[in-house]
Every structure is written in structure tokens, then in C-alpha cells.
Design goal:
Layout (H helix, E strand, L loop, with lengths): L7 H27 L5 H9 L18 H13 L6 H16 L2 H13 L4 E4 L15 E5 L2 E12 L6 E9 L6 E9 L5 E5 L10 E11 L4 E2 L5 H37 L11 H29 L3 H30 L12 H11 L4 H12 L7
Parallel strand pairs: 1-4
Antiparallel strand pairs: 2-3, 3-7, 4-5, 5-8, 6-7
Helix pairs in contact: 1-3, 3-6, 4-5, 4-6, 6-7, 6-8, 7-8, 8-9, 8-10
Length: about 375
Amino acid sequence: MTTHIESEEHKALRSAVAALGKRYGREYLTRTVAEGKPLTELWSEAGRLGYLGVSLPQEHGGGGGGITELSLVLEELGAAGSPLLMLVVSPAICGTVISRFGTEAQKRRWLPGIADGTRLMAFGITEPDAGSNSHRITTTARRDGTDWLLTGRKVFISGVDMADAVLIVGRTEDARTGNLKPCLFIVPTDAEGFHKQPIDMELNAAEKQFELVLDDVRLPADALVGDEDAGLLQLFAGLNPERIMTAAFAIGMGRYALAKAIEYARDRTVWKSPIGAHQAIAHPLAQAHIDLELARLMTQKAAHLYDSGDDIGAGEAANMAKYAAGEACVKAVDQAVHTLGGNGLTREFGLASLITAARVARIAPVSREMILNYVSHQTLGLPKSY
């Protein structure tokens, strides 16, 4: 199989995005976060250059590629020290769902702006009492004439302050059975009854987290994305790219931290030779590199399966990739900080803030324990405990 040997086009894309990332770098991100601003300049330039829209259809302003290409963009920006978290959300989740299941009117309205970065869409699935259990979602949509009325709460929704709309996962009642089934709605952030409240996070990121309260938000019939009866299929069409992109985010961050540690270990001399000559320093860094490369290979496999239309195969691989990348990222960051010793905790070297950031990939969008559950049940065929 040659699917995971990168093409010349992919290498060229990596190189071009790496050059953009280098122009901005960690200093840009750190300064912007300190000022409490979003990463508007990098986002806009990445949009103008076509990087935000690489996975979206050409007829709607995108590059006509897939999650494979979009994950390369995020990984390289992360490796340069300035990842764009909203790449996971706006083009990868929302753009994918709309391009696969949206009406022609929804595609024309949203995809060109998502592709060039002039419009941004957030994604709302997590709820205070549901956690990783999407079957416990209580946000409900009920019909009122031809309109929908949406009521509920969401938490840990990224970038709502920058978004034009949020793709909300709600539930509607099945007329035949009375059971609730998941559905997706495009909810404008300026809609009446839509309330957002920032969550005070220890995480130092440009993208803020929000709690949403939806109080009988009135939506037109065309706010529903796709078929009312195909909610889970549509939902997972967005969640698999989310896992693949989270893996790319983690790999990029791990690569950035590792590069800083390697540079330091080459130069820092305490006795006769640089500290990188000592195996106690060198071997853990080599291990971290191996783990990141293995995670990257699984991420490429997952992206390839997804882009080829194998949703079931992609689900398994995307979960494994996200798990492997999250673990590899945390270990790489930890080892990088440790390599620098006291310097690893200084603001000057900028690695300490990654200790918190690296954990995101272990927790979101699904915890590593839930991925182990998935692999236990779906892959190994072991019985469920819940």
C-alpha cells in the first residue's frame, strides 16, 4: 500500500503552509492571546491563500481536496507554533456536514465564506449533563408551523464570539415512536433567544470557550441541515473529521515542542559536551519523535479512509489516531519541558503553556477512556459495561 507515502503535491502543501506558519510563529500567538484577541490576521491570510478551504468543494470556493489536505494544514501551522483551533470546527466539521448533507441554498450561503475565512461557524454538541453520551442530549427542537423552536444548553463551545452561526446538535421527536432523534441546525449567533457566556479557563488560548443557552430560538425550516431522519449518520460525518483534525492539532503541537527541545539539547553545554549527547536526554526525545511519527501515520490512514468514503473504517481509525496523537503530544511536551529544566517553565521559552494545551487532545472531543471503550466494543467485540 502506498496510500500513506505523501505525494509531491502534499509535500508542497506542507512546505507552503510551514512557510506561512513561520512568518507568524509562536510569538504572534502569544502576543495575540495576551491582548485577548482572536488570530484574525493568520486566519484571514490562510483563507486568502486557500488553506482554510482545501477540503471543501471547488464549485463552492474550496480546493476540492479532503480532510487529508486540511489536516496537513493544521499540523504544519501547529508545528510552526501557531495552530488555528477553529480549523477543526469551521471547515472540518461544519463545512464537511454542509457540503455532504446541506441543501444547495445552504451550500451557496455558507461554504464560500467558510472556505475563504470571511465567515466562521462554531459547532455545539457538548451539554452539561450529557458529556460524551450524545444519546443524552436534551436540546430539543419542536415544530411551530413551518418554523422550529430550539431550546437547551451547550458547554465548551469554541469560538462563538467569532462565529456568524453555530451548527447545533439538537433532537426532534419522531412522530411515529415519540423517541427523540438527533438533528443539526444552523443557528445564527445574533438570533433572538441565543445567549452566550464565556467560561473562565486556565487554558491560555486565542479561542475562547462558551456556554450557550438557547431559549426558544425561532428558526426557519431551512435551518435544518439534511434529512430529519438521518441525524446520527450526518452527525458522525462531522465527528470523524473532528477526531482526525484533533490528531493533526496534537501532532503539530508535539512537533513544535520537540523541535524546541532538540535545539536546546544540541546547544546547552553543562559539562564537556552538549546535553543532547547524553542518552538520558537523547533517548526520550527519540522516543517522542517515534510516537509522533506513528500517530501521524494513523492520522493519514484515517484521513485517507474518510476521504475515500469509508465512514465505518474511518471511525475506527480516527479514534485510534486521536488517541495515539493525544498521548504522543502530552509525552513530547512533557519531555521537552523536562529537557529545558528550569528554562522549560519560563515565559521566554514558551513551552510551559503547552503543558495545559497538550491535555486538550486527551480530553476533547472525546476522552481517551471513551476511545478505549470504542475499540473494546467495536474492534475487539468485547461486551459493554454500560
